[in-house]
Write a structure and sequence with these properties.
Layout (H helix, E strand, L loop, with lengths): L4 H11 L18 H17 L16 H13 L5 H8 L3 H11 L18 H14 L1
Helix pairs in contact: 1-2, 3-4, 3-5, 4-5
Length: about 140
């Protein structure tokens, strides 16, 4: 069975009362748009042809990231905790961007940022309470 999807879209857009130019919008709900119909039909067509709605394989350059490289980056990161991405890339002989992608996407590592917190002493407590009460009275 051959389905002409362009004719289906044209027929739906002509006869559908839920398109933006129609007055009925389902009591305030957003109406179906032509883009929604086109997307729905494209997904239906993909299901009809392949039996699944997953994206098809696309041609292109294969990924350079292998399990061995991920393990190597993991070992380097564990051995020296304070290495930057550039140093990890150099140590593993991979580009900096690949090292960054492995560290963030595959190993779920995040940048470590030191935060300094001011120490609060017991003798400062009354000064802080007085300052807070002064600020509250200004409001």
């Amino acid at each position: 069975m051959v389905i002409n999807f362009k004719k289906c879209i044209a027929q739906l857009t002509l006869n559908c009362p839920l398109l933006p130019n129609a007055q009925n919008n389902l009591g305030g709900k957003r109406p179906m748009t032509q883009k929604f119909l086109a997307t729905s039909l494209r997904i239906f067509q993909r299901f009809w042809e392949t039996g699944a709605v997953k994206d098809r394989e696309r041609p292109g350059r294969p990924s350079e990231i292998t399990e061995e490289k991920v393990d190597e980056v993991h070992d380097v990161c564990e051995s020296e905790l304070q290495l930057c991405v550039r140093a990890v890339g150099t140590a593993c002989s991979i580009p900096r961007t690949t090292a960054h992608r492995i560290m963030t996407e595959y190993l779920s590592l995040k940048p470590y940022k030191v935060q300094f917190v001011q120490q609060i002493y017991e003798e400062d407590l009354q000064d802080r309470v007085d300052m807070c009460q002064t600020m509250i009275s200004m409001l």
